């Protein structure tokens, strides 16, 4: 029966200390090997908390690291360089994204979004931008979603 350890680690900066070290120790795996694998897989999420799942086979001591993705809003805020979202997103904006940046975030979150295709996934990210006070191409989310529906950005989704 495989053992599973789940933790929230800072991208690229996991250590052998808590929460991972104490959980991995009793299972007899090479802790530094696990930590190095986690850091390698999470390095592009530097500065963000990332959900990580380590699945260990106690018999063989083999392990597998599964990395989740930070919440869409965390990726949006990192992309605009804001510490946190707007307290009043309707009136106060904290940043602006280009359509290419939104597509990049949609691709990072690909497996966790509900949309059937990239176009619909991008609309989900645009909606998330609205909730943290970020505009896209200088326009509010509703306007952008309408333009996406009209096919204005279809060339970027292929």
Q: What is the topological layout?
A:
Elements: E1 3-10, H1 20-24, H2 31-42, E2 49-57, E3 62-67, H3 72-80, E4 95-97, H4 99-108, H5 118-132, E5 134-136, H6 141-149, H7 154-157
Parallel strand pairs: 4-5
Antiparallel strand pairs: 1-2, 2-3
Gyration radius, in Å: 19 Å
CATH class of the largest domain: Mainly Alpha
Supply the CATH architecture of the largest domain: Orthogonal Bundle
Give the tally of β-strands.
Answer: 5
Strand order in the sheet with the most strands: 1-2-3
Described by strand count, sense and barrel closure, the largest sheet is: 3 strands, antiparallel
What is the mean predicted local confidence, pLDDT? 90
- Briefly note the CATH topology name of the largest domain: Arc Repressor Mutant, subunit A
What is the domain total for the residues?
2
What is the helix tally?
Answer: 7
**Would you tell me the structural class of the helices and strands?**
alpha+beta
Question: Describe it for me?
Answer:
It is a single chain. It contains seven helices and five strands, in the order βααββαβααβαα. It is α+β, with helices and mostly antiparallel strands. The protein has two domains: 3-67, Ribosomal protein L11, N-terminal domain (2-Layer Sandwich); 72-157, Arc Repressor Mutant, subunit A (Orthogonal Bundle), CATH 1.10.10.250. α3 (72-80) runs antiparallel to α4 and α5 runs antiparallel to α6 (141-149). The longest helix has 15 residues, at 118-132. The chain is elongated.
């Amino acid at each position: 029966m495989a053992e599973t350890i789940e933790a929230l680690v800072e991208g690229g900066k996991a250590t052998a200390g808590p929460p991972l070290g104490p959980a991995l120790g009793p299972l007899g795996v090479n802790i530094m090997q696990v930590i190095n694998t986690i850091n390698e897989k999470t390095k592009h999420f530097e500065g963000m908390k990332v959900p990580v799942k380590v699945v260990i086979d106690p018999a063989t001591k083999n392990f597998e690291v599964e990395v989740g993705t930070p919440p869409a809003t965390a990726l949006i805020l990192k992309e605009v360089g804001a510490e946190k979202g707007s307290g009043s997103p309707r009136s106060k904006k904290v940043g602006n994204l280009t359509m290419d940046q939104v597509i990049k975030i949609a691709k990072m979150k690909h497996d966790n979004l509900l949309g059937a295709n990239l176009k619909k996934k991008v609309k989900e990210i645009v909606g998330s931008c609205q909730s943290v006070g970020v505009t896209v191409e200088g326009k509010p989310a509703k306007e952008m979603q309408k333009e996406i529906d009209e096919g204005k950005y279809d060339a970027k989704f292929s």
